[in-house]
Amino acid sequence: MLDPMRKYAQSWGIKIVFGLIIIVFVFWGVGNFNGDRATVLATVNGQPILIKDYEKQYQENLRLVKNKNPNVTDKDLQDGGFRWQVFTNMVTTKLLEDQAKTLGIAVTAGELRSEIAKIPAFQNESKQFDAKRYENLLKANDVSPGEFEADFRQQLLLEKLAAFVGLPAQVAEAEARSIFDFMREQAIIKYIPFAATDFTKGVTISDEQIAKYYEARKDEFATPAQVKIDFVEFTPKAMAKPAEITDTDIEADFKANQKKYERPEQVRVRHILMMLPPDAPQEVVDAAEKRLKAMADDVRKGKDFATLIPKDPANADGIIGEDWAWLPKGSLPKEFAPFEEKAFTLKKDEVSDPVRTSLGLHLIQGGEKQASGQRALAEVKDEIRADLAEQRAADKLTKSLDAIQEKLSSGEPLEAAVAAEKLAVKTSAFFAKDAPPAELGLSEPAVEAIFALKKGQTADAPLSTQDGFVVVRAAEVKEPGFEPLDAVKSVIKGRLTDEEAMKLAKAKAEETAKAMETEDGLKKVLADYKDKIQTSAPFTRQGFIPGLGMSPVLAQTAFEAKGPGWFKTAFGVSGAYVVAGLDKTVPADISLWDKEKERWVATLTQSKQTELFRAYLQTLQEAARVEIVNDAILGPRPAQGGGGKTVQLQ
User: Fold this and answer.
1) Phi, psi dihedral angles at 412 (to 5 degrees)
2) Which 8-state DSSP code applies to residue 18?
3) 168 phi, psi to nearest 5 deg
4) Residue 194 has what pLDDT?
5) How far is the C-alpha of 401 from the C-alpha of 603, rounded, in Å?
6) Going by fewer Cβ within 10 Å, which terminus of the chain is more open, N or C?
7) Considering Cα of 564, then 568, then 569, then 572, what sign does the dihedral take?
8) Which domains are delineated in the chain?
9) 592, 145 in Cβ contact below 8 A?
10) Helix (H) or strand (E) holding 573
11) What is the pLDDT of residues 74-109, one digit of tens each?
């Protein structure tokens, strides 16, 4: 029900249950159900699935899908059979729950409490379960504790069933070793690149081509409805009046909350992060590590660490950084423990070797350290003033909001209605429904209400935000439309130029590959391009080739080659075509096996467990009798194989 819970419940079993199984039932019947047809959607082995339960599940999944895919349209959902996806998942869950009951698998109240307490979203700063936080978070998501706990209990039950079914799965060490050798084997190729950028000078694009492209792909240049709003924030922070807080107030709060103002041990650090996915190929990790080590050596030789931090965080290298900042001990999540541990071992100005976390590789420079202790009043004075001002503002917020809403209802303009409270009327930039101002923290219903306003109209009621409320007036409204051709002409010209240049690069690469079919032709090509021939870094079967990007066909060809030699065919890579050949293969590094053995065995065991669960579920599906009572609720059945966009429900 809640996103935090869904993020938490990501075990392999739950993933299989929600979204990874293709539902194929032997019987999808429209039966002669004799019960209350008005309330029943379908029966599974004679047990009803109620319409109200289905609609509740449908709305919850719809919310999650639209949060994750803001641009998904109702047509995408209909074409992908979204209603049927929700239904089939409910059927699958029903079958698995019944099977768990038959096997005597259950979730006790103690297990439920224990697992809920582990969810980070419900924990306080000390990583302890916070009942008040739990209640408030559920309330904010319009979910009762009973609903959440029933939903979570169901997920734990399915997880236990999946684990039970997977118990027989075993992987011998020899089997894991053979797969390790296969997957860790590397190849090195030589290649001659024909980059598209080398052929752009010979490309001419006419206005007619640009216009034709624009008309054929006009949807790509669609602009959504947009709105600019005048707004007044009603949050404790926006309404706070720090000047009204006296020194006496501050001293009293400081004395009453000594523990709050204790300072943990902390270290000042700055760092560079080269972002890498957790499953990045080893050769990519090795290349990133090599680059960061070179940076570290530069700093050790006297280069300023700050000059290594990119000014543009959106750079192509995926490198970001942060200058000096204090890091309190124990403040980072567990997955960043290696970062924190290294930071506290560094001496002042010392630079670390690359440190791996779930985000990628970090290079850390240490600064001064502070021991734990009591912070002085002078140090926290401004902090206390701000906190007390916000607390007082929070106490008055509802009363002020009611007074202003009454003035607005009587016809006063927004500026006059808020004048007495001395609150500023701000104006946003234009924004689309899927990209509201992040600083306001608008809820989804609030955004919907804003886009229902006409120009100059003020919302009938305050709209909820992450930290309070906001009163909104639509300042300007832009209807959906299309970017004019003149505005996108240069973009289209660039695309067409790139397309034509790639065609020319492909033709030249194919011509070169054909010339290599004879011995004399091969010699001539190698002589003509001797200064352009490059050698790749080692790569694995996953398809990523350093310097060329993802090229699974070329990678597969390299590993299938019987020995060194040119392939005499052209391969498309990122922004280019290449003629390539195998230089050599590199066996798996035996020294890594002892370090990674347990992980390989665990991963392969998990894979076998997944296969067992799939087979088990298929058996349940084949034996199930599903009768649909009210098929109109589900809409048209999607074509087998699907013709539209599939939306995953996990």
Assistant:
1) -70, 140
2) I
3) -70, -15
4) 96
5) 56
6) C
7) positive
8) 3-168+608-633 (1.10.4030.10), 186-220+486-586 (no CATH), 226-238+389-479 (3.10.50.40), 265-371 (3.10.50.40)
9) no
10) strand 565-573
11) 777 877 888 898 998 899 888 999 989 999 999 898
